[in-house]
Amino acid sequence: GAGVSQSPSNKVTEKGKDVELRCDPISGHTALYWYRQSLGQGLEFLIYFQGNSAPDKSGLPSDRFSAERTGGSVSTLTIQRTQQEDSAVYLCASGLAGATDTQYFGPGTRLTVL
Amino acid sequence: GENVEQHPSTLSVQEGDSAVIKCTYSDSASNYFPWYKQELGKRPQLIIDIRSNVGEKKDQRIAVTLNKTAKHFSLHITETQPEDSAVYFCAALTGYALNFGKGTSLLVTP
């Protein structure tokens, strides 16, 4: 079946602008995660959604970052007033109900803030 | 919070040799340890994982060992091939979040 998809694949924006990144998880997966991967670095956890429960936002780096998940499926990560240090690849992953289930990653969105 | 250290950061081996990558974690509550392979410009792909109730798991040329007492786990790749060249990430799960190491860039030379 279809894997996790993300859009856009690349986004170039100017400092101070807002951006929205989209994630379509694998159908039937109730868990959805957002990670950030800076150049040459590991993956940094941002936020976790599980079904209709309140999301775990503990990894969001500042209040400029927010995420929604509508209808328990598609998720949008919003970054307001982008800064150059926000430049990174933003990866989404989805999985089945349990936290120890495999997380399947999307291809990522490469964000460049000029 | 959880801190995952991964070594080495780069590793170069000759085709056919073995490669070992080691990770340590700090949170004794961590109970799930996956390894991901990421080729250049591609998404991370799970290659093997281990849960805290076992000490070793094998899948063909790949094996992972876990020492809960020492809080470290390792990836072993035997009979390496050029297509094994990639960045490998270890991770430890605490609560809901996977905490990743910074990655090991593996180069397998023919």
Count of separate DSSP helical elements of chain A:
0
Calculate the mean pLDDT score of chain A and round it: 91
**What's the overall geometry of chain A?**
globular
The helix/strand class of chain B is mainly beta
Euclidean distance between termini CA atoms of chain B: 41 Å
Provide a descriptive summary of the structure in words.
The complex is a heterodimer of chains A (114) and B (110). With 114 residues, chain A is mainly β. Helices cover 0% and strands 46% of the residues of chain A. Chain A is built from no helices and 10 strands. In chain A, the strands form 2 sheets. In chain A, strands 2, 4, 5, 8, 9 and 10 form a 6-stranded mixed beta sheet that branches. Chain A has a 4-stranded antiparallel beta sheet with strand order 1-3-7-6, with no helix packed on it. In chain A, a hairpin with an 8-residue loop joins strand 8 and strand 9. The mean pLDDT of chain A is 91. Chain B is mainly β. Chain B contains no helices and 11 strands. Chain B has strands at residues 4-7, 10-14, 19-25, 32-38, 45-51, 56-59, 62-67, 72-77, 86-94, 97-100, 104-109. In chain B, strands 2, 4, 5, 9, 10 and 11 form a 6-stranded mixed beta sheet that branches. Chain B has a 5-stranded antiparallel beta sheet with strand order 1-3-8-7-6, with no helix packed on it. The model of chain B has no long low-confidence stretch (mean pLDDT 94). Chains A and B meet through strand 5 and strand 9 of A and strand 4, strand 5, strand 9 and strand 10 of B.
Question: Secondary-structure blueprint of this entry?
Answer:
The complex is a heterodimer of chains A (114) and B (110).
Chain A: E1 5-7, E2 10-13, E3 19-24, E4 31-37, E5 43-50, E6 65-69, E7 75-79, E8 88-95, E9 104-105, E10 109-113
Parallel strand pairs in A: 2-10
Antiparallel strand pairs in A: 1-3, 3-7, 4-5, 4-8, 6-7, 8-9, 8-10
Chain B: E1 4-7, E2 10-14, E3 19-25, E4 32-38, E5 45-51, E6 56-59, E7 62-67, E8 72-77, E9 86-94, E10 97-100, E11 104-109
